[in-house]
Model the fold of this input.
Amino acid sequence: MDSLIISNLQQRPTRTLISVSGVALGVILVILNTGLVRGILNDRIRRERGLGAEIQFTRKGSSVLSPSSIMSLDVRYGDRIRQIEGVKLVSPVGRYVQSGQSGLGFEQVDGIDFEGYAAISGLRILEGRVFQHDDEVIIDELKARQGKLGIGSRIQVFGKSLTVTGIYGPESGARIKMNLAALQRYLAAENKCTFLMIKVADPGRQEEVQQRINTELPQNIVLLTRDISTGFSRAIPGIDGFVKAVVALSIIVSLLVILLAMYTTITERTREIGILKSLGASKSYIVTTIEREAVTISLIGVVVGTVLALAAGWLIERFTTLQLEFHWTWILRAALIGIAAGAVGALYPALRAANQDPVKALSYE
Done:
């Protein structure tokens, strides 16, 4: 039977290639998109936690992921928060979202007070110097490496060409940072920021400090940094639906490609099926043969799709600032989806072939 399946695949290379490509496309959709979703969210969470603060304070209705460029929080809230028992340091951060040249098509810019921000996050200049004027920015190592940027390079912010004066580490927040006062002037948002970073004196009592801030300044968002992933899930409520839609689409693509390919090949091999039946081949033998051929095609498609998805992920990380995270569970799911879709897609053509009348099949031209 195995030689028959291999022979059928070799005799129809175009159909085999199309079938393999259809299954591979479904696998690529699942692996690449889930890898992108996991990578982007976890990278964002990792960098927000890298701010070093235990608490983030912001206004209701705003979000650190919001595409809005308007800063709605008054920085003078920081003066009131500094007076609350248990608070050690407070630093305002303004966040601006603009279209970008890589990644998802947008990028974030943080406006910071460098000394206060560095005291909380541990940020330090690795090369060059900190910004001193409104037209100067600093970037992190990944942004510099991926964008082939260095000291003196020019990047676009607010539609203006600003100068890179320093490269910083470790990663935290947005990959581009500038002076908060400069950001306020560019956006005509005097004394405004997006959120406040709060460092507590005793990290073990951060819940108590959070409660005191909530009591002193109600009707605001006081979020523990360790819970920031929950905040991101709220900021992107459709992310689970997106992943489910990708999985469903991959199943449909793989199933339809296999269904059409196997249906076509059954029509082409009507006479061959008649010969097999006249020689005593049972219905189960014919169904099994066709199903095994479909599963073989699906297995090849799974291997090809997995390799291409991993290669595409490497290229994306190599040439953009996007981060991907592939997990073996999703790779396994993608493989099972590809194989199952192939088997189900071939079921109807297999049953149709098994039920053909051998006399009519032999006379088929």
